[in-house]
Hints:
Helix 1 (2-19) crosses helix 10, helix 3 (37-56) packs across helix 10 and helix 5 (67-90) runs parallel beside helix 9. The protein has eleven helices and no strands. The chain has one domain. By secondary structure, the protein is an all-alpha fold.
Amino acid sequence: MLIAISVIIGVSAAAAAVTGFGFNLVSAPLLTLIYPPRLVVVLTLLLGICASGLLVLRPEIRREAEWRVIRPLFLSSLAGMPAGVVLLMWGPARALKAAIATVTAAFAIVMLTRFRPRLGGGALETVAVGFLSGVLSTSTSLNGPPVALYLMARGFTKDRFRGTMIMYVFLATVTSVVLLAAGRTITAPTLVLAAETAPVLVLGFAAGVAVVHGLSDRHFEVTVLAFLVLVGLLGIGSALR
């Protein structure tokens, strides 16, 4: 069992290193095939701190982060996180599992179609996106999709997108873990499992960094997104059985 989990974590970390997003998107729906969704949410958030933290350590990421966008998104997400905690603690397990899979598949399909709505970055839009991201963060661990689509709709360049996205996800993930700890939803066995799989995450991340320069960004992104569609659809089918 631990071998299968380690493979999932390692592949997810490699995907995150190459694309700048996707650790929780890859790992969460796959892990729900093995563990209850509540454990998966906590585990992927704990490991997500490591994954996004490793990316934040890279100078080019910090340099490209757009704090004028990150601040309002993050502050808005704080309002949504308590609602996500309530959903995680009292929501039906099957519904949580289906939500994780649906968000994963929907985001991947939108990215594959390259549909990009245009937004002006108004205050109401920013607050709505941040709030939704906060709810998803503590209920499913998937805080990235709404913000990723928002940044693309704003026309961010690749480097600016990566820097802003990674920094936001890191802040939102750390805050989500703090809230879940305050709600006593983080158990000792989950912490032990996170510690056991963290070295695999680091190895997967290092492998992703090592091969990133030899890959076409768009080709790899399409491969990851197609895989996410499949994973999401399998997760939905599993949740509905």
